[in-house]
Amino acid sequence: EGEADSLPNREPDPVEATDDAFWDQFWADTATSVQDVFALVPAAEIRAVREESPSNLATLCYKVKAGAGSRERLVLNCSRLLTRVLPYIFEDPDWRGFFWSTVPGAGRAGGEEEDENARPLAESLLLAIADLLFCPDFTVQSHRRSTVDSAEDVHSLDSCEYIWEAGVGFAHSPQPNYIHDVNRMELLKLLLTCFSEAMYLPPAPDSGGTNPWVQFFCSTENRHALPLFTSLLNTVCAYDPVGYGIPYNHLLFSDYREPLVEEAAQVLIVTLDHDSATSTSPTVDGTTTGTAMDDTDPPGPENLFVNYLSRIHREEDFQFILKGIARLLSNPLLQTYLPNSTKKIQFHQELLVLFWKLCDFNKKFLFFVLKSSDVLDILVPILYFLNDARADHSRVGLMHIGVFILLLLSGERNFGVRLNKPYSVRVPMDIPVFTGTHADLLIVVFHKIITSGHQRLQPLFDCLLTIVVNVSPYLKSLSMVAANKLLHLLEAFSTTWFLFSAAQNHHLVFFLLEAFNNIIQYQFDGNSNLVYAIIRKRSVFHQLANLPTDPPAIHKALQRRRRAPEPLSRTGSQEGASMEGSRPAAPAEPGTLKTSLVATPGIDKLTEKSQVSEDGTLRSLEPTSQQSLSDGSPPSQPLALNLSSPDQAWREQRRLSSASASGQWSPTSEWVLSWKSKLGLTDESEILRFLQHGTLVGLLPVPHPILIRKYQANSGTAMWFRTYMWGVIYLRNVDPPVWYDTDVKLFEIQRV
């Protein structure tokens, strides 16, 4: 019968689909794990069969599908073989339509009646996987005492009674079962492989990006969509890697749940890959019904997983989800108290994508997160990851998603208010020691990223400072350490060479001045530290007010930069000792693999300006079509740090800066004047008089309206999330290496 690794291309002629003896060798019990199958079936052979005997590959796929209903070992080997072969089918454009075509007679024994409405192979494969994920005694506990013939059983059972874990919409927690977990994991790996066709298409911003596999699987055609969505979500959010509360427990018992949780998280984020900018995302009103999913709303997106996610509405469900994600995100931080006392999880990037999707698709969840200080249990781990990854080129994607989440949260007033809670959890981090609030922690970490992160992070500076501006009106009392950090940033960003070296750099100065304005106008009384820091550094404001605008001065400033291309001044900021027990942020190990990412949209595309009215509601200030950007800005006030909005100069900039023949941008006098005039800085003696006056009664103008730049969904970020998410999944699936060495097109694989 031949060895299991003798693939059909050894045969000169196509093998008959009905030649069972030949095909049975593939389901033989020789392979006992997915790793075995990967070892037995080399890549070169799969490609050879694809090129030379395509009919054999087609038959194999049909056989696998047909086998997926019989013996368990058989099902698992079918599943492993498909996981092995699918990426090679996806990498060849000629084969891509194969799964969506109905091939008459392929893989059927000759005598069967031809089915009029034969399903495409992709659909029947996905439905078979869905059925198998709720197969009694295989992936779920059987509820019956007597064993009925399981074949008819699977089609009649109500899978909602077999949800894998208690949590959202399900109260019963089934007995843990190692075998079921392993079987679920193998099937989810196959499901993820089916969805991974997306990796073999180049990133195209306009490609609406609907993945046909995901679209079908998450449609009403899949009768298990609701229980499976609930099973995946609950499995992830209920997982506790600590080892049931006993330190070091994970060293005694191997945790077979983690691989399943990881696979569940990956499948979940891929099924939720849905561009909310191009579709109407369901808005949820305050009504409550008796079910876990709110069904009082318009139907919402066709993708049922996105639909269900957007309609979760019960407080206890939100609590369960938030606590679960916060527990898992905090897990790497726990490591630092008692090293190795708990199992360290590795799937925090998938969790961050999941948290993003929850906030983006379910506004009620977002408001719930911000309603209490529980949001800080998400904030602290994110700041920890940002600080830890700032020097590591292979973790640029992690830096971006962390900043995107904070940008999304900062668009809500409650986030700024929550930041005033004192920061007492002492997670060892490589930052200066300070006593203060969560706002201080955020500012200190942002300062660290900007001054000692690597160059590739510069596109994030706008986002970081937009977050600071968004929360600034609510910050009651900054510590001296944080106040000094903000002033140091102003100092670094207002050096002439930095201002003149790129078209957008002056925005950073505008953002900082806007934050100072907000704090002085709305929170002056508690912020003596900041006021004192501003007085101490008044020369910085003086230099800004007297910024040279003549061509020779601009030229000279840029010459100075060429001699010393240091990204940002490290001096002038008294660092102070780092926290005890912390390790410095390390660069990537040489040779670390990373995947490329598409560029993210600029901050003006990423956010929408809104004005906060007195009752706290937001009014959009986005200009209509041709109206000039300056119309929406508040009028200039006679404030010491008066400035207009950075957005004003964005239109003129392109016009006023000259692009030389080489396409290099270069600053001109007109360009500098166009934004310098909007800084509105007055004479420093006035600043001093104003700030040293103990009381501000009669001195301050009527507070200007608070401007918030809220994140807005757009297809640019949707594309970024898609490439980031698949890049993470590609790199994390190394055992077995499902996609390694296949010709993926969505991103490039690079070595650090």
UniProtKB/TrEMBL annotation:
It holds the Pfam family Hid1. Residues 622-634 have a biased composition (Polar residues). InterPro entries: Hid-1/Ecm30. Residues 277-296, 552-664 are annotated as: Disordered. GO terms for cellular component: Golgi medial cisterna; Golgi trans cisterna; membrane. Residues 277-293 have a biased composition (Low complexity). Coiled coil: none annotated. This is HID1 domain containing. It comes from Ursus maritimus.
